[in-house]
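User: RNA helicase, Baudoinia panamericana:
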Amino acid sequence: MKRKLNKDDVPEAVGDGRDGSAAKMVAAFTDLSIDPRLLQAVNREKFAAPTPVQAKTIPLALTGRDVLARAKTGSGKTLAYLLPVLHGVLRHKAGFSKVRETTALLLVPTKELAAQITSTLKTFTSYCTQEIRYENLSKTEDAAVTKARLAETPDIVVATPARAVYWMNQSLLKSDRLKYLVIDEADLVLSYGYEEDLQTLAAALPNGVQKLMMSATLRTEIDTLNSVFFADGTKPEILDLSAEEAAEKPTLAQYTIRTGEADKFLLIYTIFKLQLIKGKVILFVADIERCYRVKLFLEQFGIRSVVLNSELPVNSRLHAVEEFNKGVYDIIVAADEEEVVGQEEAKRKRRKLEIEEDVEGQERPSAEQPPDEESIHHEVKQAANVRKRNRRDREFGVSRGIDFRNVTCVLNFDLPTTSKSYTHRIGRTARAGQTGMALSFYVPKDQYRKHKSTSIPQTEHDERILERIRKRQASVGGSIQEWNFDMAKLEPFRYRFNDALRAVTRIAVREARTKELRQALINSEKLKRHFEENPEDLRHLRHDAETHAVRRQEHLKHVPDYLLPAGGRQAVSKDVGFVGLKSGTENSLRKRRAFNKSRGKGRMMRGRGMDPLKALNARGRGKK
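Assistant: Predicted structure for RNA helicase:
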């Protein structure tokens, strides 16, 4: 279905689109009236048929309708708004080929998602690179470089709301000729405290801008988005694909394990070492310290992993995701700090959402009803966590937006604090029709603080949060089952697990974090010039001695047969243990001794040589 442009080249709707004709499902991308160059790029990526969100959103967007769509993670929302935007930009360039102007602004909540969308733009504009230019303003770079890129007036700009407002205030990002405004992960943009920036952007938009908004969850955010962007009385087309998703054959299996805090480490040791779960795994933990504690613990058994958290520079985080997607690492330990990083207003909204979840199916409580004492205490602790983390990168999130590919399992080592976060975490697997698994550890009330060295305050409310998660999943057709894991069979592994856990001290965790940051500084392209001019700074970074380190225990890398239950050896596909750089049948120590003997060294002294006084030679060594 073709779009209609008015005299100002602004998309207009053909008819009101409310009869359902605009949202008619299409069977193939060729049924969509989009530019042939875009179809060629789609065919190269081997996308045969559009997903439900693409089949409903693209026809509406091509007619100029404002769309607010909700679909699950991994359903293809990015392509649902990119194709109509790219098609519109190409049409506009065909009519005004000599005019340079920014016609599309794509807003995202995190720098990682901005980089991912920029990569997707590169893929689908491969056959029209001369016509479309795009820039990512969320990069960490010198302001002069960003000014130079904006001076070229790109057709499409990708940015976080804060960056977009900043460059608009600098009069370098022009909004007077915008035709399209896209907000990806709209609910997360609001929860990150960008509401004030969105209001500023809404006031700067010219009349007739088409608005496309996408998210995996939309509840209370709809009212906020309507008040900010549709205050003039216009109504967006709201697409909720919950019914279609519920009708789909479930591809995600969800399990939970009731466990003590210390036994979480025992479980991941046996799961990864015996390969009970094979393939790529995202292991979510509560905070940055837990990231390194888990990583160092797994290293004791020769299990390699990579860490992802907001403390690392953006380039290091993107590099970690790329290495994981390429298969360099099969385990990524991630701190999902979207739960704790934000503003106080966001926390109040989250509290409101939790109240709605608690009374699902019941009448909403009045605004005057006071929360219980336990909820107030929990909220105060959450606010304290916000203040502790306010120095970290706000524009960071792991469970949202980042394109993790071919993930077999999402393992919630620490249960998330809300059912909403759980939904987004498990959305990292079972994407695009593939099967996947979500496994969550939860600590019952009677096991809380039983092992103080590994306990964290967050696990105190695991049972209550799990009940909310069960309700939420049941409402969308999902079910969570208990994984029947016989913990008694793991008792022979316990002494090895205790040795490894004791070796991971707080000092070792702190030094691991320092080492990671030091390496990120050494690899930084931005600091490369500084290190060339100040080589002494680089030397200090490279040779900063570590006073403490996790003690290497090579025997922990092997799993002896006597530790395994009956038939357990078959679960270990490959356990070759430690392999040196040079391997062979020759005994290196014997070889060195033979070499020294041939040079007259290392021979046993017999007879006269036993008496050192008689062995003296006044003429000198080797002379008679």
